[in-house]
Amino acid sequence: MSKATPFLMFQGNAEEAINFYISIFEDSEITSLTRGGTEGSVMKATFTINGQEFMCIDSDIKHDFTFTPSLSIFITCDTEKEIDELFEKLSDGGGVLMPIGDYGFSKKFGWVNDKFGVSWQLNLPS
After folding, report:
1. In this structure, are residues 110 and 77 in contact, taking their beta carbons and an 8 Å threshold?
2. What is the domain extent for residue 116?
3. What pLDDT is attached to residue 70?
4. pLDDT score of 113
């Protein structure tokens, strides 16, 4: 196996989500984007967040499921400013699963679902 890549399936808003993510995370970029299927939809895209590659698509098939917090993206932050800003931006229009706080296993931790339904755990180690 050469690598494992997180794969996100959206239903019509993949490009909006990608642009949101690369706007709030430093050292992030779209590395490829192919449109197809329904006009404006993403057939396949790759983007990076601080060197970590992600793949995503817009599904032309409607599903009765979406993202769930049982699988989340875990971000280790470097500063309090960074965790506070990411928490605010990612939770805007989404939902807070665990407010930022000291839960004993971390100096500062928060868990959110963003406005696209993707779950993020934000951690500031001790």
Report:
1. no
2. 73-124
3. 94
4. 98
d(C-alpha 52, C-alpha 102), whole Å:
27
Place of tokens 């500062």: 108
- Give the CATH number for residue 91: 3.30.720.110
What pLDDT shows up at residue 60? 87
- For the chain, the residue count is 126
Q: Looking at residue 91, what is its pLDDT?
A: 98
Model-wide pTM > 0.85: yes
Give 4's contacts (C-beta < 8 A, 6+ positions apart). none
Edge-to-edge strands of the sheet including 42-49?
7-10, 52-58, 42-49, 28-35
Alpha-carbon span 2 to 5, nearest angstrom: 10
